[in-house]
Amino acid sequence: MVSSSKGATPPIEVGNAADWRRLEPTKLTPILSASLDAFYEHGFHGTSVRDIARRVGVTVPALYYHHENKEAVLLALLELSTSDVLERAHAASADGGDDPVQRLANVIEAIVLRMTMRSRLAALESEVRYLSPENRQRYRTVRKGVEELVLEIVKEGKKRELFDVADAAETTRALLGMCQSIPRWYHAEGKLTPDAVARKYVEIAMKTVGSTELPVKPKKRRTADV
């Protein structure tokens, strides 16, 4: 198995997920920050370890002290990304109380805000194909947590006749699929703000599940990521 780190790399911070609408600037180690930029600009396959080391200003052996290889760097970033969205999704769901409509609206909003405000991290999902089978499964295990959460909400809404869906599992995959496609088209310099995209996607989600009720309108985000 590829280890994501070997030395005393400082902990990675992504902010307080409990306040799920608040996205603080992502704090990465210099190596992970440089790797994220390189992967975003050139893709995993087009980025060399030497390129990452040059961006950081360290030697290749120094980089290998912290991460076993390039795949380990990618895995560290992917695990950060998926853990972040999972924590935020659970916090958003809890904020919706016992109401499946509000819970689903919150979770979709949380996912979309994270996809737009942390688009570089979110875009890394396209590089998962370069992980070894073992590490790909490790990544998917965390990602599966988001799917299970949304599925549980959709099933509960259907049970209480708040949602009108024929297949809860397929509906869940459709909801998450539309959210995961956002990094392919969203640009921070575009006309749509993260809040505007979140509102639109919550509306689409409610129509997709055939909601008979409307959620409370989203509150305005307080802090933007950079």
UniProtKB/TrEMBL annotation:
Q: One Pfam family of this protein, by short name?
A: TetR_N
| Superkingdom | Bacteria
Protein name per UniProt: DNA-binding transcriptional regulator, AcrR family
Q: Which residues form a coiled coil?
A: none
Q: Please give the PROSITE patterns that the UniProt record associates with this protein.
A: HTH_TETR_2
Checking PANTHER family in the record gives: HTH-TYPE TRANSCRIPTIONAL REGULATOR RUTR, TRANSCRIPTIONAL REPRESSOR MCE3R
Keyword DNA-binding attached: yes
Q: Which UniProt keywords apply?
A: DNA-binding
- Molecular function terms in GO for this entry? DNA-binding transcription factor activity; transcription cis-regulatory region binding
